[in-house]
Hints:
This protein is mainly alpha-helical. It has helices spanning 6-24, 33-43, 50-63, 69-89, 106-109, 112-130, 143-152, 157-167, 174-199, 204-229, 253-270, 276-292, and strands at 99-100, 103-104.
Amino acid sequence: MSSPDLQPLLAPYTERINAAIDSCLPAASARPARLHEAIRYSTVPGGKRIRPILCLAAAESVVDSEAPDAALAAAVSIELLHTYTLVHDDLPCMDDDDLRRGQPTVHVAYDEGLAVLVGDALQTLAFEALGQAVPGSRYPPGQLVLELSQAAGSRGVIAGQVEDIAASNAALSEDELTFVHEHKTAILFRAALRMGAIAANADDEQLEALSAYGLALGMAFQITDDLLDAGQDAGGDGESTDRALTCLAVYDLDTAKQKARDQIHIAISSVQSLEARGRLTLEAIVTSLADRSE
């Protein structure tokens, strides 16, 4: 399976998302300036913006036109939430990483206390951005907030971080590995897809298809990152875990590659009935993982 060149396909999404993020962040000079400067330092350089792109593409796969404004607000919120998790994951008490997105992590560039507050502020900003989004008429007014809070909370991303820390010095089972990968990585992918779908007023079948795609994509993404980053700190846009917590602690190399291929197949199969505009973007993103995992 050969992946397409993603850059031309994703560039228009990235431009919309970056402009929307910039407009929702406080000015770097706004008091307290050091905090707002650090927020922009962590956010504006950006990563691949995969999660917000997925959110917009999910909306387009439902409506077959440019994603509605509610989906853009949801896309901004998912990226701010994701950036908060990275800032906190990088802290010395967590994964203790020195580099993120090609630059020193926030606690290195500033200090540890400010990094904690940057993460706190980004989490709050994520919900502020989402508070401006009205879901489709099939859904209650608070549904988008509910989706993000459930994905981010003690049964979502935070659960994955807790299990990550608890297992870092222990022999890892397949169940523990799956739980960490699902909750630290895949659950936020799934939320991005669901939020885009809900913003575009998806029906039950469309929402289920995009949920399945998101979970499978997230698992494939993390397995692929494990394969690429074995023996290194991730330092990129994925979730950096202790090397004892990679798929190679449980599977041999061939089995891990097959696990990634299986998840990619599930993701592609899940969205075949959706509208072409968004579906083609979703297929291109997941197909690109196939080449990276080989």
